[in-house]
Design a protein that fits this description.
Elements (H helix, E strand, L loop, with lengths): L10 H8 L6 E7 H6 L2 H6 L9 E6 L3 H13 L4 E6 L4 H5 L10 H14 L4 E6 L6 H16 L4 E5 L13 H9 L6 E5 L5 H11 L3 E2 L11 H9 L10 H35 L6 H9 L4 H11 L15 H5 L19
Parallel strand pairs: 1-2, 2-3, 3-4, 4-5, 5-6, 6-7
Helix pairs in contact: 1-11, 4-6, 6-7, 9-10, 11-12, 11-13
Bound molecules: flavin mononucleotide (FMN).
Length: 348
C-alpha cells in the first residue's frame, strides 16, 4: 500500500500510483480541528476522485470526541477506511498531544479508538510506531494500544519499526515486526513500515517478517513503479526494467495535471518541484534534471523540463536502496496545523 506522507500523498500521488499497480492508499494525516471547522484542509487534503478507491483517510488529533466527529465528516466525504495516527514524531505535533504522543498516553489513545469505533461502522485502522522510546513502560503502552485495536476489531494496524523518539535516525527494527506478527490475531492485517526504498526491500521485509502487507513510504515518492515491481517479485518474476524515459514522462504529465485539479496551476507548480526532483532520480541525467525541476515556477517551465529531458525515449535508471539525505534529516510527518492545510513545498 502507499503510505501516508505529509505534503505528498494527496489524490494526485495516489492516483498516479494506482494506475501503476498500487492497490490501496492513505491520505496524509488530516487534522481533526481543521476538518471540524470545514476549512481548506477539508477541501484539499480530503479531495478524492472516483479512481481513488479503496482509500483511507488518516486522522490526527488529541481530543477523542473531536476525532470521532472528524471521522464522521471523512466518511461522508467518501473515504472507505478511517485510519488514526498515533505515530507522528514531529515536535509541534507531540507538543499538542497528537500523533506519537498518544503512545505515551495509552488511556487517551484507547478512549479515542473506542469513540471512533462508536461512530464508524466500517473499517478502522491505526498507524503506530513500535513504542515511544526503548523503555519498558513505553513497550507496555504500545502493547495496551495494540491489543485494544485488535479487540475493537480494527481491520489493519500499520507499525513503523522505529520508536517515536528515534524519529528517522537509526534503522527500523524489522525483528520487532516479525515478533509482533506472531502475536497478531489472524483477523487483523499487519502492515510493516520502515526502510523500504525499493521493491527488493519490500520483498525482504515481507518475507523476513511474515507481515501481511508493506506500507511503502519514502520509496514511493517519485517512484510509483515500485508497486508493480513489488507485485512482480511477489509472483516470483524477475524485477522489471526501470521505467523508460517515456514512461516517466507519462507519469510526470499525469501527476502535474492531477495536482492542478487539486491546487490550481500556481500552487501545483510549486508543489510539483519537490516531486519532480524525486522523479529525477530515475533519469540518466538525474542531477541536471533535478536542477531544472527545482526552478519550475509554472506549467510552462514544467513542460520545458519535460520537453528537454523526457522527449527522447531511452532506459531509465534504478533507484538505490538508500534514503535521500533530505528525507533522513527532515522532521517529517508534519500535517498542516494552519487553517490552510495545503502542504507547502518542503513543509513535510
Ligand atoms: C515526508 C514524510 C511525511 C510523512 N507523513 C506521514 C503521515 O502523514 N502519516 C503517517 O502515518 N506517516 C507519515 N510518514 C511516515 C511514513 O509513512 C513511514 O512510516 C516512514 O517514513 C517509515 O517508512 P520508510 O522508512 O519506508 O520511509 C511520513 C514520512 C515522511 C518521510
Amino acid at each position: 500500500m502507499q503510505a501516508g506522507l505529509a505534503g505528498y500523498s494527496d489524490m494526485a500521488m495516489r492516483v498516479v500510483a494506482r494506475r501503476r499497480g498500487c492497490p490501496y492508499a492513505v491520505t496524509e494525516a488530516l487534522l481533526d480541528q481543521v476538518l471540524m471547522r470545514g476549512g481548506r484542509g477539508r477541501e484539499k487534503g480530503a479531495i478524492l476522485c472516483p479512481e481513488d478507491h479503496p482509500v483511507a483517510a488518516q486522522l490526527m488529533g488529541s481530543d477523542p470526541d473531536q476525532v470521532a466527529g472528524a471521522a464522521k465528516i471523512l466518511l461522508e466525504a467518501g473515504f472507505d477506511v478511517i485510519d488514526l495516527n498515533f505515530a507522528c514524531p514531529v515536535r509541534k505535533v507531540m507538543g499538542r498531544c497528537r500523533g506519537g504522543y498518544l503512545l505515551s498516553d495509552p488511556a487517551t489513545a484507547i478512549t479515542m479508538m473506542r469513540r471512533v469505533r462508536d461512530v464508524v461502522p466500517g473499517p478502522l485502522t491505526v498507524k503506530l510506531r513500535r513504542a515511544l522510546n526503548e523503555s519498558a513502560k513505553a513497550s507496555d503502552a504500545f502493547n495496551q494500544v495494540f491489543d485494544e485495536a485488535c479487540r475493537l476489531q480494527f481491520v489493519a494496524i500499520a507499525v513503523h519499526g522505529r520508536t517515536v523518539e528515534q524519529k528517522y535516525t537509526g534503522t527500523a527494527d524489522w525483528n520487532f515486526l516479525r515478533a509482533l506478527k506472531q502475536r497478531t490475531p489472524a483477523s487483523v492485517t499487519l502492515f510493516g513500515s520502515g526502510d523500504v526504498f525499493t521493491a527488493e526491500d519490500a520483498l525482504r521485509m515481507y518475507t523476513s517478517t511474515g507481515i501481511d502487507g508493506v506500507w511503502i513510504a519514502r520509496g514511493a515518492i517519485g517512484n510509483p513503479w515500485i508497486f508493480s515491481e513489488f507485485a512482480a517479485l511477489l509472483r516470483g518474476q524477475p524485477l522489471p526494467p526501470p521505467p523508460s524515459i517515456h514512461a516517466q514522462r507519462e507519469a510526470l504529465l499525469e501527476h502535474f495535471a492531477l495536482a492542478v485539479e487539486i491546487y490550481g496551476e500556481d500552487l501545483a507548480s510549486r508543489q510539483m518541484r519537490k516531486l519532480g526532483i524525486k522523479y529525477s532520480k530515475l533519469h540518466p541525467n538525474g542531477p541536471e534534471v533535478w536542477r531544472e525541476f527545482i526552478a519550475v515556477k509554472n506549467q510552462r517551465d514544467w513542460n520545458t523540463v519535460l520537453q528537454r529531458h523526457y522527449h527522447r525515449d531511452g532506459p531509465g535508471i534504478r533507484v538505490p536502496s538508500v534514503p535521500d539525505a533530505e528525507d533522513v534529516c527532515k522532521d517529517s510527518c508534519e500535517p498542516s496545523t494552519r487553517n490552510d492545510s495545503v502542504p507547502l513545498p518542503g513543509a513535510a
